[in-house]
Structures are given as C-alpha cells and as structure tokens.
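fwd from M.: "can u put these together and see what the complex looks like"

so here's what she sent:
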Amino acid sequence: MVDFRFILDDYKPAVQNMALDEAVMRLAREQTTPTIRFYGWKPSAISIGYFQSLEEEVDLEKCEDLNVDFVRRITGGGAVFHDAELTYSFVCTENSGIVPKKIIDSYQKICGALVKGFGEIGLDAKFMPVNDIIVNGKKISGNAQTRRDGVVLQHGTILLEVDVDKMFSLLKVPSEKLRGKLIEDVKQRVTSVEQQLNRKMTFGRLAEFMKKGFEKEFSARLVPGKFSQKELDLAKKISKEKFANHEWSFKR
Amino acid sequence: MKGNSIYKIPDGKLVKVRLDFEGQKIISLKIFGDFFMYPEEGIEKLESALAGKMLLEKELVKAISDARDLHGLEFFGLTPIGLATAILMAKEGALNG
C-alpha cells in the first residue's frame, strides 16, 4: 500500500487550473508521494492542445459573449469544452515506478484507475489507445499526458453531462457546410456519465467513485492533502507569465 | 505559393499543415493538430528540419523520420507517412486553387 496526496479541489478559472497542474509537476521532486487532484472549471472553458492553432479552433468572440474562458494546455491532444465534468490530474516522478516508463503503457495504467472508477458506478468502461476511455462504444473521457524533467503529468476529463451543440457554438469548423454533419458525428461518438446512467450525478459523488478507482488500480491510499505554499506561489507566477499571456495562447 | 491542408491520419489524429513553397521546394511550414509529440518543443525542430526539402513523398518521409530520430521525438497519432501526405495535400491544394 502506497500513499498518494489527494487534493479535492474546487472550480477554478482555466488559467489557474492549468497553472496549478504545471506547478505541481515542476515541484514534484519535492513531494514524497504522487499527487492526484480533482477539479472543475468556473467559468466554463475551452482548452486546446499544445499543437493546435487557437484562432483556427476557437471562436474567441463567441467565448467572450458566453463568458467562456480559453487556454492552451502544455499537453497535446484536441480542443475540449470543460463544462459539466470532473477533471483530474495525476503527477508522479518517472523513477518512482508508479507508472510504466513507456508512455503508451502509462496512459493505460492511469486510465485504468478511471476504468475502475466507472466500474464502481456500474459502467463497463474500456481504455481506447491512445488516450480515450469509452463506454458502450462512445467516448466518455479524454486524457492527455506530458513528461518533463523526469516527471509525468496526465490530466483528463470525465464528462458528467455533454452539450454538443453548445460546444460547437464555441468551436470553429473547417467548413461551415459540414458543421451540421460534424455535430451529428460527435453526438454519435460522445457520451456522458448521466447519459449512460440515465440519472443525475454530481461532481462530489463522481469524485468519490473515481477516488476508489485510483485506490484500487494503484493499491494506494489517497490521503487528503493541500497544495504547498511554494506550489501556490509558483502557480500564481505561471498563471500570469504563461497561461494568461497572449504570447502563449497564440503561440501556434 | 501558400497552401493549407487538413488530413485525418488513418488510425491516427487530425493534422493540419500551412505550407509555403516554391516549385518543388518547401520554404517553410507549420504543423498543427490534436496529435501528441514528446517532447512537445520538438515540433519547432521538426518544422525547421523540413524547410528546404523537396515536395516528394519519399524525401519527406525520410526527412520526418530522420528529424524524429535525431531529436529523440516520440509521436502518437502522427506518422511520417501521414504527415508527408498532409504536406503534399497542402501543395496540391495551392496548385488546384
């Protein structure tokens, strides 16, 4: 049995969320245990992958109209509309041996915790390489990992509810002619916890189930913890200098 | 000339290319998409490595693989052939208006 630091965080603005994940990652060597953080987004936000073009993916005017934040992640992957969901981040050092060295295997291991968490709710979930988790053939969770200086950060989202129409109102599409078809495709391919359960589910309840999933997958005890003052200070700095900065947002 | 492309790599991710070229030669290009690459900063090295290369499939695949190996990059959802295809599509797009 190993101990993990468990931070049950609340809803925060996009730049703060991304800055906290990065701060925990950068200071991971100063922690004796891996860190798991659960959090949400307020206001709702779009995050884009490291390699995406902000202007090409996101309708920035629409974001402003609807009070939706936007942020570029330090991880690859696609654009995500963070609305009714539980987001997690997982940080450990590579040489802790907690996750496999091979990136693809480590995705599977960390996603395995979510798969077990879904199992706790009674949903039969499967890991779909590279970075998705599916239930009944539909995507219910997207995940993204990066590694820096011997530290692994993986964060991902678990959809409580999904509003594909609202999501697409905030995203740009390659061709307006195809917008309707794209929306239909995504509705066919994406689902949510509430859709699959056919009942309401709260952030707090889902967090309990997912906590169990992590405990089972890693044979770990999730010990409630807090950010260190150093992490909070660094997050504030990263938030200002990077995620809230146009140079980063419009980097690609 | 300038051309753009959007290409879904079979069993992979979506890649978008913005290409600036002259004749058969790449002047510069930018690669976007929802793929994964480690380390992430490698994308700029890959883009620079392709400047000056000929717009021929074999040459592009080789240049992409060489840059990947030289800089120790790992791709997920992105392949040398898939990226070469996207680059050639950007060229075709420009030529066919």
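replying to her w this: Chain A has ten helices and eleven strands.
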